[in-house]
Amino acid sequence: MQTIDARTSRLVVRPATHEDAESCARIFYEAFESLATRHGFPIEPGSPDFTRFHVGAMLANDGIAGVVAERDGEVLGSAFVDERSAIAGIGPVTVDPAVQDDGVGRALMEALRHRERERGVAGVRLVQTAYHYRSLALYTKLGFVVREPLSVLQGTPPSLSLPGLGVRPAREDDVAACAELCARVHGHDRTDEVRAAVAAGTARVVARPERVAGYATGFGYGWHAVAETNEDLIALLSSAESFMGLGILVPSRNAELLGWCLGHGLRIVQQSTLMTIGLYNEPAGAWLPSIVY
Q1: Which residue, 61, 69, 214, 225, could crosslink 232 as a Cys pair with Cβ 3.0–4.6 Å?
Q2: Among 2, 24, 27, 5, which Cα is nearest to 13's?
Q3: CATH number of 153-288
């Protein structure tokens, strides 16, 4: 696949390979570091070591596809899309700070949009860093719609126990119940993500008598959670040892949940935005997105 930047020279957009890992990881960190430093916000990926690990994990995952943009053989940026469910989740999309505003980000996004149209997915989603106005403008021009403001929260999880709600590690035999719950709340399931989190040992469920009332694939930027009620989600959050990465993403319109988090010592570190194309149902329950969606 390829696209042309008419303002400068030809950009080639092609599938990412393991040979691109180091370049993609370097640009991933430098792009977010440059942006965050310029605006006075925390850097979203914690370190270059993290971006190397994360890029390697994405390239090794058959359910995640990546593309790179290069000019004259030099990698200028990359973008990844999680294809493990009926909804595709785009991210991260990163461009070398030296070529910002040069059409690279658009070329990467158009390549992924074309890929997902060819696959016939029901919808595409992403989480955008709110203070990055250029990306908000780009995604809007590409057809994405703002669905939910998100507050990124960090701090020490409160260690609380809620009567009648038991939280335990998720098991393989919980996957079907988690899929049914996600479909009930969102209109689609995320079974492959849940199964991977169970295998990794990061997933937890909250149980009411005779049923699973909520689950979390983990606690932090890379994981999501779904629950019947805010109480169920609070029970899950209260079981966490820590919130990994920059923190958890809380839908800002959920005033009850956001207020509970702030009242128990968590702090807002930045704002993000959930954006979508295609299938989107207003959630019928409590939820936390991952940094992808």
Answers
A1: 214
A2: 2
A3: 3.40.630.30
pTM here? Answer: 0.92
Q: Greater confidence, 8 or 200?
A: 200
Query: Could you tell me which residues come within 8 angstroms of residue 151 by beta carbon, excluding any fewer than 6 positions away?
Result: 249, 250, 251, 252, 258, 268, 271, 272
Distance CA 154, CA 63 (A): 29
pLDDT, tens digit (0-9, with 9 covering 90-100), for 241-270: 999 999 999 999 999 999 999 999 999 999
Gap between the Cα atoms of 222 and 237, Å rounded: 15
Distance CA 193, CA 289 (A): 12
Q: Quick one: DSSP state of residue 72?
A: T
Which amino acid, residue 134? R
Cα–Cα distance for residue pair 225/237, rounded to 1 Å: 9
Report cis status (omega within 30 of 0) of the bond before 209: no
Per-residue burial over 229-268, b if 16 or more Cβ lie within 10 Å, else e, is bbbbbbbbbbbbeebbbbbbbbbbebeebbebbeeeebeb
Residue with tokens 């966490």: 240
What count of Cα atoms within 13 Å lies in the side-chain half-sphere of residue 126? 23
Q: Which one-letter amino acid corresponds to residue 125?
A: R
Burial of residue 9 (number of CB atoms within 10 Å: 0-12, 13-18, 19+) = exposed
Tokens found for residue 260: 């509970």
Output the CATH code of domain 3-121. 3.40.630.30
Q: Identify the residue whose tokens are 């991977």.
A: 196
**Tokens 């990844």 sit on residue:** 80
Number of Cβ within 10 Å of residue 202's Cβ equals 18
Domain regions of the chain by residue span: 3-121, 153-288
* Other Cβ atoms within 10 Å of 38 Cβ, number: 11
